[in-house]
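Predict the 3D structure for this chain.
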Amino acid sequence: MKHKTLCAAALAAALLCTACAPRPAAREPQIELLATPAPQPTPTPNQGMGGWDFAPQRTADQQKYGSAGLLAWPCVLYSVYLDEAGGGAAWTDEEIERSQQNLALAVDWIGAQAAAYGASPRLYCGTDDLLERIEYEGTFVGGESADEGQRFYSEIDALCARLDTDQLAETYGTTNVGFLIFLPVDGCSFTMVHYLEDGSSYYYEYSCLYKENTYFPAGTFEMPAVYAHEILHLFGAPDLYEGSNDLYVTPELIEYVAQNWPDAIMQDTYNADGVPEYDAISKTICPLTAYRLGLCADFPGIEQFPLAAQDPAGTYRLDPGTDTDDLPAQDEGVAAAPAA
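Done. Predicted structure below.
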């Protein structure tokens, strides 16, 4: 997962961790899972047709969660396929169709997993009006860096703002929107999320999904499990592997997850034999992730890891010394325009 931060002196982009770690070493046999906590009622937005009221301005509550909101709320997932201009790397129609099939599988899997916690997400995607193909005046970095550069991030911010229209909100009955930016090269997929400290800045949340997985041999198409992993970041799921910079994800928590929920999708996206899987996702949304997504009221181990419960579900934090109650009050103004 990648995060944009607002520094006191200037705007900067900071790479905290990637969402596709190298294939993990073999684990010990799975132990018996702990009891799953009972579902809780999830927060509901201020109205409209299941989403926010239609308005050109975002309230402080909306700014807290970023553009995608919470998983329990209706959300549009808008697909953008980028081609390099001038005959560079580009998508074929067949590749776009295949990635949309992966997306449908990932969204269906998220719905089935959330149902185990008593939730029924409404994620809108896969229709012609939610898909756009655009030429990008530049080249993509790809590879293991998961860093496409400041120019790219600024241009994607501006693109998201342009695509977030009143018509889109009226059609789907919600102004919650997350963007899926598909890049036609191999790479390590990542997600840009909104932090509590961001306020009205960096409002738009998007996942950058590469055509091929850089950790496999050349030509290996990205897996549906990676799509699902990245989409869950949009709604507040933390990375649960070594190298995660989510503030409460300590080595002790990582070990706890590995022992109790070895199939957690936020820990890794590979199946048991490490072979890419395209017709299913052999992972789970573990209780800790479900808690951070706002799908349940508790998770086994919450007493041992209280920092995981410090902030509201569906949110991220940058500064470990900042208390939520101490954040500056947000006015009802529109989110700041992205830098051009």
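The chain has a mean pLDDT of 81.
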